[in-house]
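Structure representation.

___
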Amino acid sequence: MAVEFIGYIGNTNQSETIKAPPEAIDLVHVETAAKLHENAGFDRTLFAFHSTSPESILVAQHAASVTTRLGVMIAHRPGFNAPTILARQLATLDHITRGRVAVHVITGGSDTELQADGDYTTKAERYARTSEYLDVVRAEWAATRPFDYAGRYYRTSNAFSAIKPYRPEGIPIYFGGSSDEAIAVAGKHADIYALWGETYEQVRESLSRVRAAAATHGRTPRFSLSLRPIVADTEEAAWARADRILEEARDLQRASGKVVEAPQNEGSRRLLAAAAQGTRLDKRLWTGIAALVGAKGNSTSLVGTPDQVADAMLDYYRLGITTFLIRGFDPLLDAFLYGRDLLPRVRALVARETGQAAAA
């Protein structure tokens, strides 16, 4: 199977090593990043969701308006929009962009953040609600006549959407979460299950759990891995850059005065468990930033020359990963470097791998 690359477009130019500007959104940055990712050869870019951030659907629509080929993956949290409305919003944008929309469903792992939007449900309740939410979304996209739905969290009568996804294969649903509740929902609904940059052993385990859950529904999802590649012309230079990134991130963290809290979500706990094994794992996996920030989000890296990092990514491909969500600590420069030095190498390795398999 061909490999897919997803980038990341923030609302402003910031990262663990770049201080956030005072404005909440910088449209010049969004436009520049969108055009850069398209020219670099990315298939899609992720637009994140947070209880304090600009609305991801609207930012993604703006990025799509300044590009012609780049797909958008919109992070969306169930529970605040009616699922029937979300289904029509995404289908409408899918038509406006001629089939470039995907959605990344984020159920939410922090009680504190969810309560900022007025959500006081438990984790188990949130995942049960998400499953019903996606039942209704899929029904809106597929139904040829009005339908009823009766669940614990959602109930509809004569629901119907006149607008369907642009392409016959529909709008891809990406889904993440490592708890037992999340895996159950992923098995039922995920077209692509997304996990963070774990060790080879952890990835094998995660894929096995999701495949088993999906098999009960007769489904075979694909898999995505999120990483922060650090590349340089030599291996020594790449590790030196990783050291500088860690020091810059540590300085910025100290200046912010923020206290790193223990994570509530299982995905972050898994990354911290990996970090506890050491800062350098497997061939090229680096856990320095994950340990520093409490594994908040996508925070593990592959470090080395472009050839070395591409080779490590091929290892993950062989485990079953067909999508890589990659973003750098210098968002614009790294996106350019990935497009020039990394994406072509990984695609060439995958093409050779699949060609040899076909020949065999």
Summary: The domain at 4-355 is CATH 3.20.20.30 (TIM Barrel). The CA atoms of residues 314 and 346 lie 7 Å apart. The mean pLDDT is 95.
